[in-house]
Amino acid sequence: MTSAAVSNFHRLHTDANRATVVFRVKDGMSALASSISIKSVEALQIGWEANEPPGRHSAFVRVTTVDGIVGYGEASPMMGGEHSLGVIRDFAETLAGRDALDHAVIFDQLLHKYVKLGPEGAVTGALAALDIALWDIRGKAVGLPVYKLLGGAWRTEIPFYASIGGNAARTVDEVVRVVEKRWKAETPAAIKIRWDGDRTRQDFDIAGDIEKARAVRKLVGDGFPLAFDANNQYSVGGAIRVGRALEELGYIWFEEPVQHYQVRAMGEVAQRLDITVSAGEQSYTTQDIVDLIEAGVRMVQPDIVKMGGITGLMQCAAICHAHGVELVPHQTQPTIGHVANLHLLATVMHLTKPAEFADPSTRMHAAFANLPAPKDGRFVVPSGPGLGLQINDAEVDARRL
Ligand SMILES: [Mg+2]
Predict the structure, then answer these.
(1) Is 392 among the domain residues?
(2) Could you report the per-residue pLDDT of 297-320, keeping only the tens digit for each?
(3) C-alpha 394 to ligand 1 mean position (Å)
(4) Do 191 and 303 share a structural domain?
């Protein structure tokens, strides 16, 4: 920005820490300074409760700029998130002095730096976390919510579905009890029952699985939207059997019927059944999503903390729109990932399904002052700058492992 141009601006922020970042033009418009320099990148593994399993930890990244803006992002917490956090620690120092506004360039540079680790999982989780944090910074710099920067919201209230896991190990009665509890407590817009079974076994209780699906239909009555997540436990033949039963029971989608890496088999099941078959929560690049679509899958579920962050999900939204494919993101983390996902969903024109809500726990509210609460089957997207989250840094630091 030239000195002459600067003379046309008034400083918008009087906060000394942020004073160099945002200016206001005399006619009321806002503009960014030419760069927002990154000062530090921290990888944070967070524990919430004593003796929790690693999968209940959170994997956060905290990016601080030289002007004092703090952005938070989140990686998938698989194995406690330690592998993604290791990648973040490896590149953290190299980002000092880089421009936070160059998030997409930084993303692709780092993806190709680490590509021989294999982009699936640890690397793309790390980059997703960084991308979300840099979008948080960008929004805070201009005083606008992320959804505004993405092109605006079609809606700022997002219906959610209760995503209920662990049903492979339950009896029929137990499944009904667990579903009934969340159905009544949360009044979700839809319910998905997940199997979370042993992926090394296949087709081992098809009749029992159908019985559970039937019992849940009986509980909620005809017409209530239900989905069935196989978590990759069937052969193609087994999936066709279960899928036909789900069609009769009026389920609206059938998720990951076969192994995620059997892309052509996934497409075959999708094409042979009438029920919508979905996949993509274990896809880590836009190219993986295209492979699923080309195989025949017509509803994809990339996860904002596993692949691409906000930038990657926006790219997926464009791919889906171009192909006439439903984008229904997977999302199971209750804080940063959840809110980043809500911002993204606000901007998707053809949003055909509710947002996933997997964890009704309030265990994290100590560090997050204004997490959107599930109410009347909906979440309200935060409208504050960036992700709009008020995060207590000291509370986060107190929970570092
Ligand atoms: Mg799933």
Answers:
(1) no
(2) 999 999 999 999 999 999 999 999
(3) 34
(4) yes
Euclidean distance between CA atoms 21 and 163, whole angstroms:
41
Reduced to 3 states (helix: H, G, I; strand: E, B; else coil), residue 138 is helix
**pLDDT value of position 15:** 40
What pLDDT, on the 0 to 100 scale, is given for residue 272? 98
The structural domain count of the chain equals: 3
CA 258/CA 265 separation, integer angstroms: 7
Quote the ligand 1 centre to 301 CA distance (angstroms).
8
Spacing, Cα 85 to ligand 1 middle (Å): 23
Q: How far is the CA of 277 from the centre of ligand 1 (A)?
A: 11
Cα(330) to ligand 1 centroid in Å equals: 7
What is the C-alpha R_g of the chain? 22
CA atoms of 1 and 32, how far apart (whole Å):
10
Residue 338: which of 33, 55, 58, 80 has the closest Cα? 58
User: What distance in angstroms lies between residue 63's CA and the mean position of ligand 1's atoms?
Assistant: 30
CATH number of the domain encompassing residue 380:
3.20.20.120
State whether 68 and 177 are in the same domain.
no
> Do you know the residue count of the chain?
401
* Range scoring the smallest mean pLDDT among 6-20, 157-171, 207-221, 257-271: 6-20
Token pair in block for residue 130: 């960084």
At 154, list the tokens.
Answer: 């079609």
Neighbour-count burial for 98-129, b at 16+ CB within 10 Å, e otherwise:
bbbbebeebbeebbeebeeeebbbbbbbbbbb
- What is the extent of the structural domain holding 121? 38-143
CA of residue 200 to ligand 1 center, whole Å: 17
Whole-number Å distance, alpha carbon 254 to ligand 1 midpoint, is: 9
pTM: 0.91
DSSP letters for 303-368: BTTTTTHHHHHHHHHHHHHHHT-EE--B---SSHHHHHHHHHHHT-SS--SPEEE-----TTTTTB
How far, in Å, from the CA of 47 to the mean position of ligand 1?
24
Question: Residue 393 falls within a domain, yes or no?
Answer: no
> What's the half-sphere exposure (Cβ side, CA atoms, 13 Å) at 68?
9
* DSSP code per residue over 199-221: TT--STTHHHHHHHHHHHHHHH-
Distance 79 CA to ligand 1 centre (A): 17
